[in-house]
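Reopening closed ticket. The problem is back. First fold of the pair:
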Amino acid sequence: MARKAKKLQELQKLFDESEIDFSLLESDIVINKLIEKAESIYDIRNESYIKHKLSDIVILTLFAVLANADEWKEIEAFGIKKEKWLRKFLELPNGIPSDDTIRVVISSINSNYFYNIVVEFFMEIINKLTEIVNQKVDSKKQDIFSIDGKTSCSSKRNDTNIEGSKALHTLNAYSSNYRICIGQVFVDEKSNEIPAVKDLLKIIDIKDTVVTWDALNTQKSTVEEVIKYRGNYVGALKKNQGLLYNDVKDYFEEDVLEELKGSKANYKVTQEKEHSAIVTREYFLTTDINWIYGRKDWKGFKSIGLERKTIKRNNGIINHEERYFICSIEDIELFSRAVRDHWGIENGLHWHLDFTFKDDKNTTMSKTGAKNLQIIKKIALTILKMVQTFYNVSLKMIRYRLSLDFEDEISNIFKLLDVNVLKIALGK
């Protein structure tokens, strides 16, 4: 189950204790800031044929996606229905553009640029929000960046050899502290995730973070890139690593595990109730790696680890799972966080893109259009996650409420993101 952003958890208690009357508050600052950022996107269109401002189309698309629109026709329908309200912020010199125009224009923009500047803007807001509750950030507590791929299955075209027929595959990087996607690259149809990881590491700042990934991406070239950019790594191992996997697996025999359990520096255990089952997680970490053949070929390699998960169900059935890792870290607490938080990218990003935003049903034939619509959805997801602590309902329900009463709900959302207004509302 996805957990709330660590930097926003304390806000929940504050909201629960406060009664905020948004009707008494006024602020369009965050909306206007978003429009400013959209206006900074370079427009590649020929000026002679421009009927609609690029920034108008970008902001219209973002608002529509927030309000439960998942496809181009739904975005147009939202614009037509809400045109009067939209004109408070957008110029719309020729009215609402058609769904085809929206699709073509969104497909043409450098949405990665827009995404990066908007996410940076929201991360600054999150940091300021945490100051409201006097939550001090532990500078020694490293962020965990999880890297994993996602396939938009419905973007695939069957029975064709035409280039662009494969499903869109995105490689995402996800921040554990902020619980948002902090970067992405789209995997070339003729390639795979392994070289794409290197491209992703070039566009995100991994200095002083711990980068995690699944066994596919535990490659010598990948760990070398992480170390080059002054990050750390926890990489999963499976049989595709051959000898290394077998050596690490054989090392963690029961007598070794019993010995490691006797040291707080090498062992940690947690127990939680999950889905009518008791889940016990045991983490083992050791720096005893001098015996590993070829260890010097793995840059920064300092330790090996094991996560042993025991699931005891109410019906008495007990299941065991074991996962093995190579690491550039030596701290058991950091190792356990990295292993556990890695799944945040699946639960907190990929699942929401498919369940909350129906990205898996994106049938856009243009790969660029599919990419850019997904990026807009990620921005919407970031906004919804930031205000979820106040709403205290599912993200899907927030979108539904926006679809029912957009003008009031969107106004409340952006007031929540205006730190100065929120301080006044909370009497801070």
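Second fold of the pair, where the issue appears:
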Amino acid sequence: MPDLANLLTFALVALGMVLTPGPNMIYLVSRSISQGPKAGLISLAGVAVGFIFYVGCAAFGITALLMAVPYAYDALRYAGALYLFYMAWQAVRPGGRSPFQVRELPRSSPRTLFTMGLVTNLLNPKIAVMYVSLLPQFIQPDHGSVLTQSLALGMTQVAVSLSVNALIALMAGSIAGFLAGRPLWMVAQRWLMGTVLAGLAMRMALESRR
């Protein structure tokens, strides 16, 4: 196991990363506001499974193999970019509505919410890159099994991410009432959301492997 100081340092790094806005946060916030905190937490469960998948891959070296195969990495990266472009188009298309908008609509089933949370996380190759580049910096070969340390560090990141995102999902639900009576804010948010998503997609599509 990594020593306590090393583990706490890694936890602080993980906290800084989870507070940086990205596709996971955008999806969780939109679901929490449009369908309620419970929907956001169900979506978060899907995101959590995606994190656990990457933790296992990193710990057993599969992610390193993925990074070594250019076409495999690029396929994942472009799939993620296309998915974000699709979400951006849904936000700004004529007649489109903001995911933050309070409205009556067919509610997504728990299964759909969970699946979309999982897909949102898995289609982000930066998560894989994070585990390949970040975890090794905190591994201490003289502190026992590398596999055990990798799993401990990875699960620390998952715990930090789940705690912070759960709090965000619960707080996001209260924003619905504020936005409901302010249509201009809703329009501005819809275009801001589309712009952010398109920017993330473009960056993902153009970014070379690290």
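Update: turned out to be a display glitch only; the data is intact. The chain has a mean pLDDT of 76. The longest helix spans residues 146-172. Please close again.
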